[in-house]
Design goal:
The protein has 478 residues and is α+β, with helices and mostly antiparallel strands. The chain folds into 3 domains: 5-162, PAS domain (Beta-Lactamase, 2-Layer Sandwich); 223-307, Signal transduction histidine kinase, dimerisation/phosphotransfer (DHp) domain (Helix Hairpins); 313-477, Heat Shock Protein 90, CATH 3.30.565. The protein has helices spanning 5-60, 65-79, 110-116, 158-208, 223-272, 277-309, 319-336, 356-372, 419-424, 431-441, 471-477; strands at 82-86, 92-95, 121-127, 132-143, 146-156, 315-318, 340-345, 351-354, 379-387, 390-397, 446-452, 456-464, 468-469. Helix 1 runs antiparallel to helix 2, helix 5 runs antiparallel to helix 6 (277-309) and helix 6 (277-309) runs parallel beside helix 10. Bound molecules: adenosine-5'-triphosphate and magnesium ion.
């Protein structure tokens, strides 16, 4: 039950509101109580002082208790408090309570003692007799440091506490109302907040069950909205990856099936028919060719998957020298096909610190395509130059060119413009995909600079200078 955000949020908010209201209430009540008590005390003291002045004239003249009591009574009526006047011997000389009063008795109280010593006395106490809290104040009756007695005033605190109780009640009611109101709001807010999370959970669950075609409507642009947006992107990627994988497996099976089917037919023919040795040799040559294709295909596939797993060993090398090396290896093939090869390699190409083997693979693939798809009599050109922030290498040919609509797909696995021609030429359609994988890995770009059908095409790739070694380091290395 407590593992729901909505419930936890509601309880937390309610507790927070209750705690804040309780703390505020306690502080407020305390302040109010102090305020009421001190204003009541001030009131009593003010009246006490006035009474003391009045009593002084009577006490000087030794007035009788009846007169003193009626003066006490008149002050008592003004402030609704009991007023008693005592002699310096603490004898009650006048009491506003006539019947059952303290007239004639001694008032032995510490507050009276305070007043007789010239100080204001004060106390709050619970009166069992009247069953209420009372505030008692004493004021000295004196003249030129001579004490004539003291005035004792006692007022009920019931009205003060009644007021405080009313305020307390009001605060409890307003706290409960605020909690009720806030609780409703929090539930509503929590519902709105958790609704998209619930939806997200549902959709994620569906994805986990294999239904990958999921999309969440984005209704807000807050954190949850952004989470939903990222989720949609992720869902689209998962779906795309899944589609790629399915297509890839289909393509691989298809590519494997064609040479395997040829081998199978050849083997069956060899088994079923009587053949002359020359005929048998021809069949065996076909089997050999198809097996070679299978080996190339599997090698290319391995290359693609392995590239994703292990990075090749990086070394410092000169791009110019590496290009010369690659051209030296390919030139016999170029010559054999009756092509001419030009090169335009700029001076001062930087040293690279990447895998030379990977870069060679890119160059071999691009040159292999240029040779493969250019008819004899044509020419090829390889160029390399240092541009701002990157090195660009281009491989140009005068071959069959690439139709415009095929260009965006060239770097996809198994893509071939003309399947039968490429297959006939021994291509699996993985070469450019491998090149892209390598160039992407080093942060460069690869693409077709220009291409015209039957006129030729120019492929290029770039490598950022941050994979090169700067010139001052060059001297140390060489
Ligand atoms: N220089 C080019 N001229 C014309 N078409 C090209 C050229 N380079 C690539 N292509 C087209 O692009 C396709 C993909 O090239 P890619 O190098 O990936 O595969 P492939 O050469 O057919 O096979 P592989 O390189 O795996 O042996 C080719 O089949 C071809 O149709
Ligand atoms: Mg190729």
């Amino acid at each position: 039950m407590f593992n729901s955000i909505r419930l936890r949020m509601t309880i937390t908010y309610l507790l927070l509101i209750a705690a804040v209201m309780l703390a505020t209430g306690l502080v407020l009540l305390n302040v109010l109580e102090n305020y009421y008590l001190s204003s009541e005390e001030e009131n009593l003291q003010r009246t006490g002082r006035l009474a003391a002045e009045s009593f002084l004239t009577y006490l000087r003249e030794d007035s009788d208790p009846v007169l003193l009591s009626s003066v006490a009574e008149s002050f008592s009526r003004q402030i609704n408090a009991r007023v008693i006047v005592v002699s310096p011997q603490k004898l009650v000389l006048g009491d506003s309570v006539r019947i059952g009063g303290l007239l004639g008795s001694r008032l032995e109280r510490s507050e009276v003692q305070d007043a007789l010593e010239g100080r204001m006395g004060r106390s709050i106490q619970y009166s069992k007799l009247s069953d209420q809290w009372v505030l008692q104040v004493t004021v000295p009756v004196e003249e030129h440091d001579t004490s004539f007695g003291a005035v004792f005033l006692s007022a009920s605190l019931a009205p003060v506490y009644e007021n405080l109780t009313a305020i307390r009640r009001f605060m409890v009611v307003s706290t409960l109302t605020a909690m009720l109101f806030a609780g409703g709001l929090v539930i509503l807010f929590a519902h709105r907040l958790t609704k998209p999370i619930k939806e997200l959970t549902g959709v994620a669950q569906q994805m986990a069950e294999g239904k990958l075609d999921q999309n969440i409507p984005i209704t807000t642009d807050d954190e949850i909205g952004r989470l939903a947006q990222q989720f949609n992107i992720m869902a689209a990627r998962v779906k795309e990856t899944n589609q790629h994988l399915t297509r890839f497996v289909g393509d691989v099976s298809h590519e494997l099936r064609t040479p395997l089917a040829s081998i199978h037919i050849c083997l069956q023919s060899l088994e079923d028919y009587e053949m002359k040795p020359e005929e048998q040799k021809e069949f065996l040559q076909d089997i050999n060719k198809e097996t070679e294709r299978l080996i190339y295909l599997v090698e290319d596939l391995l290359e693609l998957t392995r590239r994703q797993e292990v990075g090749e060993k990086s070394e410092i090398f000169s791009l110019g020298e590496l290009l010369e090396e690659v051209l030296e290896v390919t030139s016999p093939r170029v010559k054999r096909k009756g092509l001419t090869l030009f090169k335009e390699i700029s001076e001062g190409l930087p040293l690279f610190f990447i895998s030379p083997e990977a870069l060679k693979r890119v160059l071999f693939n691009l040159l292999d395509n240029a040779i493969k798809y250019t008819p004899s009599g044509g020419w090829l050109k390889i160029a390399a130059e240092n541009r701002a922030g990157e090195v660009i290498v281009t491989v140009q040919d005068t071959g069959c060119g690439i139709p415009e609509e095929a260009i965006p797909h060239l770097f996809e696995r198994f893509f071939r413009v003309d399947k039968s021609r490429s297959r006939y030429l021994g291509g699996t359609g993985l070469g450019l995909a491998i090149c892209k994988e390598i160039i992407d890995h080093y942060g460069g770009q690869i693409g077709v600079e220009e291409s015209q059908e039957d006129k030729g095409s120019t492929f290029f790739f770039t490598l950022p200078v941050d994979v090169t070694i700067q010139a001052d380091y060059e001297e140390d290395v060489i």
